Amino acid sequence: MGKLSASILSADFAHLADQVKLVEPYADVIHIDVMDAHFVSPLTIGPVVVGSLRPVTDRVLHGHLMVEAPEGLFDELATSGMDVVSFHVEAVDDPAPVIRKARGAGMGVGLTVSPETPVDRMFAHLEDLDDVMIMSVHPGWAGQDFIPESLSKLELVRRELDRRGLAPDVEIDGGVNIDNARRCVDAGANVLVAASAIFEAPDIAAAARELAEIAKGVA
Ligand code: DX5
Ligand code: ZN
Questions:
Q1: Whether residue 173 lies in the annotated active site
Q2: What is the residue extent of each domain of the chain?
Q3: Would you say residue 212 has pLDDT above 90?
Q4: CATH number of 3-215
Q5: Which ligand is nearest to the CA of 211?
Q6: What is the per-residue pLDDT across 81-113, written as a single tens digit (0 to 9) for each?
C-alpha cells in the first residue's frame, strides 16, 4: 500500500501544528529529521518537539535519525511519542543490537543508507526491519536535487525483499517531487518522503494530495 510521508524539515516551525493539519488528510506519516551537528552538520529537532506534536496528530511519527550513537536517543524519543525510528548504517558499528534496542524501547525500526553507501549494507538485517529507506540526497538539508542513481538502489532492495518474501515499508527520501515520484514508485518505493515539494508549494494541501495520489497509485 502506497503512502506519503510529509517531512516537516521544510515546515514553518512557528506554526507546526497548523502545517501538520494541512497535510494530515493526505500524509499517512509525519517524517521528523533529527540531526545532531555531528553525523551531519546541521542541528534540528528532538524529543521536545516530538512531545509537542504527539497530541496534535494521530499520524505515524517517523524519526529519521541523522545522529551518531542513535541508541542514546531511543528511550526519550519513545517516551515523547515517536512510533518508528530509522537510523543510518553508517552511524553504527553493528546495526543488530541497535535494532533490538529500538524495538525494546517499543518503536518500529528502520535502517537507511546515504547516497554513497551500497544498499547491500542493509541486507543482513532485512528480516528484522519494519522500514528500509534509501536516501536520494545527501543527509542534512531539504531542497536538494534528487540523485537519479537512487532508483537502481530502490530496485535492488525491492528485488531482494521480494526474493525473501519480506514486506517492510520501502521509502525514498530526498528531492522527491511531482516529476520523479512515479519513477520512485515504479522502482519499488511504497513510501514517498517529501519536505520542500510539500511545504514550499504555494498550496501545501494540494501538493500533498498530488504526491499522495502518486504514492497510492491513483494518479
Ligand atoms: C534530508 C532529510 C530529508 C529532507 C527531504 O537530510 O532527511 O528528509 O527533509 O527534503 P526534500 O524533500 O526537500 O528533499
Ligand atoms: Zn529524512
A1: yes
A2: 3-215
A3: yes
A4: 3.20.20.70
A5: 1
A6: 999 999 999 999 999 999 999 999 999 999 999
